[in-house]
Design brief:
alpha+beta; Beta-lactamase; six-stranded antiparallel beta sheet; globular; single chain; 3 domains
């Protein structure tokens, strides 16, 4: 009996202990649950602002695809970050992924400028030191400094020297300097902005001479690897093939990279890698070998120019302060944008280009993306597809109508007065001569005072250049016909 009582007491104590433990466990669970709820809540609050809603993502997808369709752009990649967090990333077109690399064109200058800023911070170079201090064979002018190169105020312009195709594709920096030494300055150094690709080629050469590394190795070791830009390369490796545009139709082009122009335009990357690059220099400059105010250093403009900083352009986009840089190669177009007040970074890459689209469509596309991010109405672009088709029809009409006119002139033996013939010759000569004289001036305005080689102009708008050549040829053929007729008619008069 005593044992039964003791057993009962034991069982009671055991049950009581279990109940107490259970109560303690439930109490602990309650606090853990509350902690998880609070953690989830604060996590949501912390990250709610940069996240893009599904409806906004859909709006971005539809707007970008619609604009790309208007010009039959085969492939594109767009990525957006907010305060360093990736909030949107999408590729457009078949057979590519977010890891597929494009040529980024002149955004390469932003990486080159960062390399120069790193070396300046380490005390290995001075921005105010003469270029000839670091490049012995440079003899164009002793007044040009490293800072002048970085800000495109060196006084050198493509009016005096065009680097595009000037040398073999594998020519090095030394060969470029040797070729450039024959040029003269257009402006006094530091006086006027003039976008000039060789400025950044010379910076690449300075990087090599100061560090003892090749430009490719330096960019790889001190920018690409530290930032883990796994799909970025300075070795001219590209995944997505470029395309020329001919009246809106796409024609594949294998881009021919120039080794001596690599620091100015031939690095390859992806939209997401470009975001990592922009996020780093903007929010964590120490991660790329700069001081805490390294971003301010990179984005500070030259005293005589309020436009171009160190590899970045400073002017508003979509009515908002922005720091950005575009890239344009015959088969590629790109843009890297940092919105100053909104903490958004945007990267756009595409594999088709044309002078008209890079001047009109792609800026509209960037503006539209920015406005959608801020719940504003995106600009509605015209249907460039049909505009180009109309231009193609006009091109065909030009050939057919003028061809018919020339055939009629050849068949028609109508005798005209000497004055009439000379007038026709003068008019048909004046038109092509005027166009050839005015085009360089127009190109100077379009290309930010940089000048432009005819080869590059042709690659950026082959359809319009061919149309121009056909038109000029027609006028010259008419000149030849009128001249021959004039000579024959004069002989007939002499014989008579």
């Amino acid at each position: 009996m005593r044992m039964n009582v003791e057993q009962c007491e034991y069982d009671y104590l055991m049950k009581r202990g279990l109940i107490m433990k259970l109560k303690h466990f439930m109490h602990l669970l309650k606090w853990v649950s509350l902690l998880m709820i609070l953690t989830t809540y604060f996590t949501f609050v912390t990250h709610a602002e940069p996240l893009i809603s599904l409806s906004k993502q859909k709006s971005l997808d539809e707007y970008i695809q619609s604009n790309l369709d208007k010009l039959s752009v085969p492939h594109a990649s767009v990525a957006i970050s907010h305060k360093g967090e990736l909030v949107y990333s999408q590729v457009f077109g078949q057979s590519i992924s977010k890891d597929s690399s494009f040529y980024i064109g002149s955004i390469s200058k932003s990486l080159t400028a960062l390399a120069i800023a790193q070396l300046e911070y380490q005390g290995k170079i001075s921005l105010d030191q003469r270029v000839s201090t670091y490049i012995d064979e440079f003899s164009i002018s002793d007044e040009i400094t490293v800072r002048h190169l970085v800000h495109h105020v060196s006084g050198m312009t493509e009016k005096e020297y065009s680097s595009w195709g000037a040398l073999p594709a594998d020519a090095d920096f030394s060969r470029l300097v040797q070729d450039m030494n024959t040029m003269t300055l257009t402006h006094t150094p530091g006086e006027q902005f003039a976008y000039f690709n060789p400025n950044y080629s010379l910076l690449g050469y300075i990087i090599e001479n100061v560090t003892g590394l090749s430009y490719v190795d330096y960019i790889d070791e001190y920018i690409i690897k530290p930032l883990k830009l796994k799909n970025t390369s300075a070795k001219k490796e590209v995944d997505v093939q470029g395309n020329l545009s001919f009246f809106g139709f796409s024609f594949k082009r294998d881009e021919q990279p120039f080794s001596y122009d690599l620091p100015a335009g031939y690095i390859t990357s992806t939209a997401e890698d470009l975001l990592l690059f922009m996020d780093a220099i903007r929010y964590d400059p120490q991660s790329v070998g700069l001081s805490d105010d390294g971003f301010r250093t990179l984005t500070q403009t030259y005293p005589t120019d309020n436009f171009y900083s160190m590899g970045w352009m400073n002017y508003d986009l979509a009515d908002r302060p922005a720091i950005h840089h575009g890239g344009s190669l015959p088969g590629y177009s790109s843009n890297a944008i940092m919105l100053v007040e909104d903490d958004y970074n945007i990267a756009l890459l595409s594999n088709k280009n044309h002078l008209l689209t890079s001047s009109i469509l792609y800026p509209d596309l960037s503006e539209g993306i920015i406005r959608i991010l801020h719940d504003e109405i995106a600009p509605t672009s015209s249907s460039y597809f049909w505009i180009y088709r109309m231009l193609l029809i006009l091109f065909a009409f030009t050939i057919l109508s003028n061809g018919k006119k020339i055939i009629a002139m050849i068949k028609n033996n109508e005798i005209k007065t000497r004055k009439s013939r000379i007038k026709s010759i003068f008019i048909n000569l004046a038109i092509p001569i005027s166009i050839v004289m005015l085009l360089p001036m127009l190109a100077g305005l379009i290309f930010a005072q940089r000048g432009m080689s005819w080869t590059l102009v042709y690659l950026l708008m082959p359809d319009l250049i061919i149309w121009l050549i056909v038109g000029l040829s027609i006028h010259l053929i008419e000149v030849a016909i009128h001249t021959i007729r004039l000579v024959k008619e004069n002989k007939s008069i002499d014989i008579g």
